[in-house]
């Protein structure tokens, strides 16, 4: 079984839900406390052993590329002033030379299309996909680590799921679970954003390990919900050909593609921080909700 070494980060979306903040700035660069949203997904991927990071970007996303580069002037001036602690803060945004690729999705044709744009960089290896809008928080066992562990035992395709309210199933890709062993379900079907009759309340929440054969299915340009090339539809075709499992994520999910979810992520992560947590807690305590 080939190890999972590569990850795709689809970051081409225009971030219209956050206008005007995202008029001149990628939404992935909006800070959750003091780190841009994209940093959380990158940290998670590296914790899971990912070596090559592939960002599928679009126009106006240059700031992401600059962020993961060396900031020579800034670093030189911090060095000169002896501000070593501040230099340390930049460590996680430095990616290993040659390990990050940036390619463009020229048109917004869907998540499946974004993933397909990376086909030549993926080649013939299994790969991960992380949707940075989904901030999945469990420092003890990050979601992608759980997927890699399951993949190393079961092989095939593995996705992260969480239970959502019945009334929200139409917003997600939903799995049809089969046999269950602990936190891991075999998957016998997948539906993208079911209008009615969702097969379960288990929603895919933006972490995937996929076999490279999915690229040929995505190339067929089949349009699904919203007239887009849906990753879920192509994944559904892999069921039966390869093992397909879903891991329940045991942690907190912040949907940072949504304004309320984004604010909640900021509050929740700020409360955990020893430097600012007490002040934020004190402020919240004195609000009359
Ligand atoms: C995408 C996927 C969907 C998944 C969701 C998680 O949908 O297509 O299957 O459940 O991400 O956030 P989107 O939210 O981009 O419409």
Bound molecules: 1-O-phosphono-alpha-D-glucopyranose
Q: Give the SSE string.
A: EEEHEHHHEHHEEHEEEEHHEEHH
Radius of gyration: 19 Å
Distance between the termini: 53 Å
Number of strands: 13
Q: What kind of oligomer do you see?
A: single chain
CATH topology, what is it called?
Spore Coat Polysaccharide Biosynthesis Protein SpsA, Chain A
Q: What does the largest sheet look like?
A: 9 strands, mixed
Helix count, DSSP H or I runs of 4 or more residues: 11
What does this structure look like?
The chain has eleven helices and 13 strands. Strand 2 and strand 3 (35-36) form a beta hairpin. The radius of gyration is 19 Å and the shape is globular. The N and C termini lie far apart (53 Å). The strands form three sheets. The protein has a nine-stranded mixed β-sheet. The chain has a two-stranded antiparallel ribbon with strand order 2-3. The protein is an alpha/beta fold and 289 residues long. The longest helix is centred in the last third of the chain and has 14 residues, at 259-272. The chain has one domain (6-285): Spore Coat Polysaccharide Biosynthesis Protein SpsA, Chain A (Alpha-Beta Complex). The model has no long low-confidence stretch (mean pLDDT 96). Bound molecules: 1-O-phosphono-alpha-D-glucopyranose. 1-O-phosphono-alpha-D-glucopyranose binds next to strand 11 and helix 9.
């Amino acid at each position: 079984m080939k190890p999972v070494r590569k990850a795709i980060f689809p970051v081409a979306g225009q971030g219209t839900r956050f206008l005007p903040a995202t008029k001149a700035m990628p939404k992935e660069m909006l800070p959750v406390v003091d780190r841009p949203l994209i940093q959380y997904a990158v940290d998670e991927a590296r914790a899971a052993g990912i070596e090559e990071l592939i960002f599928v970007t679009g126009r106006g996303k240059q700031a992401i590329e600059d962020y993961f580069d060396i900031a020579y002037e800034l670093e030189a001036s911090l060095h000169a002033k002896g501000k070593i602690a501040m230099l340390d803060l930049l460590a996680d945004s430095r990616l290993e030379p040659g390990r990050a690729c940036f390619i463009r999705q020229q048109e917004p044709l869907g998540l499946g299309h974004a993933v397909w744009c990376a086909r030549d960089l993926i080649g013939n290896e299994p790969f991960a996909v992380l949707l940075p809008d989904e901030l999945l928080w469990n420092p003890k066992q990050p979601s992608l680590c759980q997927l890699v562990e399951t993949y190393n035992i079961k092989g095939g395709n593995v996705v992260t799921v969480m239970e959502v309210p019945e009334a929200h199933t139409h917003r997600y890709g939903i799995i049809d679970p089969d046999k269950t062993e602990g936190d891991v379900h075999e998957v016998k079907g997948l539906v993208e954003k079911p209008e009615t009759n969702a097969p379960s309340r288990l929603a895919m929440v933006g972490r995937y390990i996929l076999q490279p054969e999915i690229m040929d299915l995505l190339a067929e340009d089949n349009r699904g919900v919203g007239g887009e090339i849906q990753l879920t539809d192509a994944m559904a075709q892999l069921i039966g050909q390869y093992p397909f499992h879903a891991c329940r994520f045991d942690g907190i999910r912040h949907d940072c593609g949504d304004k309320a979810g984004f604010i909640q992520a900021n509050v929740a992560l700020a409360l955990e921080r020893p430097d600012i947590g007490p002040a934020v807690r004190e402020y919240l305590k004195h609000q009359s909700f």
